[in-house]
């Protein structure tokens, strides 16, 4: 599709392959990928963009499956203009949407702010964490976020706090409204850095021994149904380590879908759907995707 797009100060890439932007390394092209220089560049672009043109914002692509047919419209990827971290006081800090979660955890530890160390175990960035209430090992974003700066489709900036997030398990009202997270303020508690770093090291070591972090994966594939663990359901259905095309559920962690090297997006999605069907047939439990799937088949 040939789109008429506003002038920008950042980068605007036409018919751009999206596979390199995702951890799965699969998927077709977007009509355009916009890498804004900063918040004002993004605001000006959205304000001038034809409202009929679809817009999708992605982060580091760790929890994203782009289908082989590609994506209509403009894909926005926030980068250098959105990756600053600022310590505000003894218990809070501000981070841009493009800051990796692990860096947020490390900066908090360096500042002696405890409570954010669980982010060391999340393979994403702040924007995605805020949008989907990311969490692991018993902690979630809802417990530590104080406010967020977001932008709407018209380029207007808003502040969100408290009930405005509409958080539930791996979900937020920001998702429903199609808002773009620009950054957020996080609140922890003051503690000596060494103790925080020790807990982060434990989280990192646990993740390295229990998750296939060196593989082409999208992190947790399915949400945990109430009262169940997704990995146990996938394992019990017999899909741990079983190949389908170039796709496989990890032998190390059965809720991690892997591109073994030659998978297409269809291979990965079809395997996920087969596993969902088998789990439902065997147990009556419905698995919902945690990985976001976008684009045309």
Provide the descriptors you would attach to this structure in a database record:
27% strand, alpha+beta, Uridine Diphospho-n-acetylenolpyruvylglucosamine Reductase, domain 1, 7 helices, globular, 26% helix, 297 residues, Uridine Diphospho-n-acetylenolpyruvylglucosamine Reductase, domain 3, four-stranded mixed β-sheet
Structure notes:
The longest helix has 19 residues. This protein folds into 3 domains: 70 residues, Uridine Diphospho-n-acetylenolpyruvylglucosamine Reductase, domain 2 (2-Layer Sandwich); 127 residues, Uridine Diphospho-n-acetylenolpyruvylglucosamine Reductase, domain 3; 79 residues, UDP-N-acetylenolpyruvoylglucosamine reductase, C-terminal domain (Uridine Diphospho-n-acetylenolpyruvylglucosamine Reductase, domain 1, Alpha-Beta Complex), CATH 3.90.78. It has 297 residues and is α+β, with helices and mostly antiparallel strands. α2 runs antiparallel to α5. It contains 7 helices and 19 strands. Strands 6-7-13-11-12 form a 5-stranded antiparallel sheet, covered by helices on one side. The mean pLDDT is 96. Helices cover 26% and strands 27% of the residues.
Largest sheet, described in full? 5 strands, antiparallel
Number of strands: 19
Can you write the helix and strand succession as a string?
EEHEEEEEHEHEEEEHEEHEHEEEHE
**pLDDT under 50 segments (min length 5)?**
none
User: What is the typical, i.e. mean, pLDDT?
Assistant: 96
Which secondary-structure class do the elements indicate? alpha+beta
From the 3D coordinates, which CATH architecture of the largest domain would you assign? 2-Layer Sandwich
Give the amount of beta strand, in percent: 25-35%
CATH class of the largest domain: Alpha Beta
Please name the CATH topology of the largest domain: Uridine Diphospho-n-acetylenolpyruvylglucosamine Reductase, domain 3
Q: What oligomeric assembly is this protein in? A: single chain
Inertia-based shape: globular
As for the number of domains, it is 3
Tally of contiguous helical segments: 7
Beginning-to-end CA distance, first to last residue:
17 Å
Helix content range: 25-40%
Please list the strands of the largest sheet in the order they lie side by side: 6-7-13-11-12
